[in-house]
Design brief:
The protein contains three helices and four strands.
């Protein structure tokens, strides 16, 4: 199946149909490795690690930081 390259911000991407993702055993967030050959689309999917958990204290700190700095963070996102 042919796919069209699309502009995503300053990058370029390609959409992959859900049935193709399922067939490849891939999902959003998986890492795609390309090799150095001249093949247009030669990839190996690597499943993201789900065993790594974020320390609840770090999450609490991040939530507190965001709450305290919401106005500044909102201004920065528009830069």
């Amino acid at each position: 199946m042919d796919q069209k390259l699309i502009k995503i911000g300053s990058s370029t991407g390609v959409t992959i149909a859900p049935e193709t993702l399922k067939k490849l055993g891939m999902q959003a967030g998986d890492i795609i490795e390309t090799d150095d050959s001249n093949e247009v689309f030669s990839v190996k999917a690597k499943q993201k690690k789900t065993s790594e958990k974020i320390d609840p204290q770090v999450l609490a700190w991040a939530d507190d930081f965001i709450a305290k700095n919401r106005e500044l963070l909102d201004r920065l996102k528009d830069k």
